[in-house]
Design brief:
Low-confidence stretches: 3-34
Number of strands: 10
Distance between the termini: 15 Å
Strand content: 5-15%
Radius of gyration: 24 Å
Largest sheet: 2 strands, antiparallel
Strand order of the largest sheet: 1-3
Helix content: 40-55%
Oligomer: single chain
């Protein structure tokens, strides 16, 4: 399958590039016979070729946001609760399942395209005589190395314990498409070398508007830090995270409003380190789900208002959001109600921008209160706001043609770096010496959302804020990071963030077992509809425990039984690869 996919993109990738970089090319050369030598003539060609690499990153199979989260403890797989046959949520997937096959396919297509650009620059570099041309060629090559490294880092953290085939060249004949598995260590060394080249040669930031969205040295540093964190090499990881945090050339800073990271507002903001750019521009000749589209359709995955609500928050996550304690000293947590009375917000800012709850009176959802906007039926007690267009339309179908969103996807942002750096400072829960400094970085994230801070005011960077007064140890702070801070700040974000976190902490099976013992039910919620009439959203306010005559809600009972680390911690080698590649044993 890898061979078929790459061969297909030898044609499609060059077709896309030729239209951008050399308009007359198709009149002179049969595109089915294009070769590296016949197309890549100038640096403009190589730079245009990069567009196909960036477009490979837009393929939604790369992040596979829905099913990567369904196989973690983050989500319930959509409409029809309590019944589901979703194999990822139930931990029944195997090497024939569609998501690992599609993800593998998408990643190797991106690798092939990046290799084309790298090979082209290697051919063109001797002809570059002036410093400006040499610098431009090097930066083009660095972007291609970044993406090849990124795609291999995703393969390494996703498939077969990290052991996958390596392509560091452009295959020229059929035999070269068949490559054997390489050790996880060799794959890791390979993508780290790519990222180090990118770190050394990419700019700190891009200044021209036309270049917004191109990758930077800061993104390479972040990916390298994550790779060492996943290895539990905390000291090495911390050096890269500290670079991202303290290097003023990057200019990173938390946005004042956490919601700026989840909608089409304030894209490419100061917090964004790696971001996928999408547009509402629509290719009518392409299927809405085609990877050639420049928009995404993630809005339909999460939204119940014109969408399909294919995933929504798991019960424990809803309860954790509902229980977030606000900083009562922070004016952002107070609102003036319709009667002119000053009161505390219904829920924290982080909660309100992350999920829609029926009784949240303070954050509009599709221009109404959540209870007015959607029915909250079928055992659904919350919806993700992330990836939806709740802030700009009344219904997802208002965007025409439908099945599209132009909202960018923020893959890595500074808040994530702060929390990973905090984990490094306490060495994953073993080093008491780093606790105070780690709390400082956690509190930076919490203060942005006006949450009650950790520790004591006397030791705090923000003494005027309310604090929980707890004397944290490395162990208890690590627990807070694992079960509160990282999942609530980063829910359904990034590349398989929660799957990788649970696996590297060694708690996936235990987590499913613990959550399977929890019971919930939905309380009825009285509200006023848009016509001023009283109504009820039945069983819509999630409550932990059980209650007579109310339907009991449980999560992960099958996952707790079915999850086997050897089979489910990583995606298996896809069946298509096993069938078509004789060198994969």
């Amino acid at each position: 399958m890898m061979k078929k996919s790459i061969f297909k993109y030898m044609t499609l990738g060059l077709l896309a590039v030729s239209q951008l970089g050399c308009n007359n090319f198709l009149e002179e050369v049969n595109p089915n016979e294009m070769s590296t030598d016949s197309f890549w003539k100038t640096l403009d060609d190589a730079d245009a070729g990069l567009i196909s690499v960036y477009n490979a990153f837009k393929n939604q199979n790369v992040l596979a946001i829905g099913d990567e989260n369904n196989r973690s403890d983050m989500t319930y797989p959509g409409w029809g609760r309590p019944n589901t046959s979703n194999e990822y949520y139930l931990q029944n997937f195997n090497n024939g399942s569609s998501t690992p096959n599609n993800k593998w396919d998408a990643l190797y297509k991106g690798i092939f395209r990046a290799n084309q650009v790298i090979a082209a620059i290697d051919l063109l570099m001797p002809a570059q005589k002036d410093a400006a041309s040499i610098k431009r060629a090097t930066i083009i090559k660095a972007q291609a190395h970044f993406f090849r490294g990124l795609f291999y880092s995703y393969l390494h953290s996703s498939f077969n314990g990290g052991s996958v085939p390596i392509f560091d060249f452009v295959p020229q004949d059929e035999s070269e498409f068949y490559q054997p598995l390489q050790s996880a260590q060799k794959v890791q060394d390979f993508f780290r070398a790519d990222m180090e080249f990118a770190l050394a040669n990419l700019p700190f930031k891009w200044t021209a508007n036309k270049d917004l969205g191109r990758v930077t040295a800061g993104a390479a540093s972040a990916v390298l830090g994550m790779s060492y964190l996943y290895d539990k090499n905390y000291d090495k990881a911390a050096t890269y995270f500290k670079d991202v945090i303290t290097n003023t050339n990057y200019g990173y800073a938390l946005t004042p409003n956490i919601g700026d990271n989840f909608t089409s507002a304030n894209e490419f903001n100061s917090e964004s380190i790696l971001e996928i750019s999408y547009s509402l521009a629509f290719k009518a000749e392409q299927n809405p789900y085609a990877e050639e589209q420049v928009s995404n359709n993630l809005n339909f995955m999460v939204s119940p208002v014109g969408g399909y609500r294919a995933i929504y928050p798991s019960s424990w996550l809803i309860m954790a959001y509902k229980q977030e304690v606000m900083d009562t000293n922070d004016e952002r947590n107070y609102v003036i109600d319709s009667k002119g009375v000053r009161r505390l917000r219904s829920y924290s800012l982080r909660t309100s921008y992350s999920i829609a709850l029926p009784d949240d009176m303070d954050t509009k959802y599709y221009q109404l209160t959540p209870a007015q906007a959607t029915l909250f039926n079928n055992g659904e007690t919350a919806y993700f706001r992330k990836y939806s267009n709740w802030d700009i339309v009344k219904n997802e179908k208002d965007i025409q043609p439908t099945l599209r969103s132009g909202a960018n996807v923020r893959v890595i942002r500074l808040a994530d770096i702060y929390l990973m750096y905090a984990e490094c400072l306490i060495k994953g829960g073993t080093d008491e010496a780093g606790v105070e400094d780690a709390i400082r970085y956690v509190n930076k994230v919490r203060r942005r959302s006006a949450l009650r801070l950790l520790g004591t005011a006397a030791q705090s960077e923000y003494p005027a804020s309310s604090h929980d007064g707890v004397a944290y140890t490395a162990t208890t702070l690590m627990d807070h990071l694992m079960y509160i801070e990282r999942p609530l700040e980063l829910s359904i974000e990034g590349h398989a963030t929660r799957v990788i976190d649970l696996r590297r902490w060694g708690i996936t099976k235990k987590r499913f077992q613990e959550l399977a013992t929890k019971k919930y039910y939905g309380e009825h919620y009285k509200y006023t509809d848009i016509n001023g009439k009283e109504g009820t959203r039945w069983a819509s306010v999630l409550t932990e425990g059980t209650k007579a005559t109310y339907v009991e809600i449980t999560d992960y009972t099958q996952a707790a039984k079915n999850y086997v680390e050897a089979a489910h911690a990583y995606w298996p080698l896809p069946n298509n690869e096993l069938l078509t590649n004789p060198d994969v044993k």
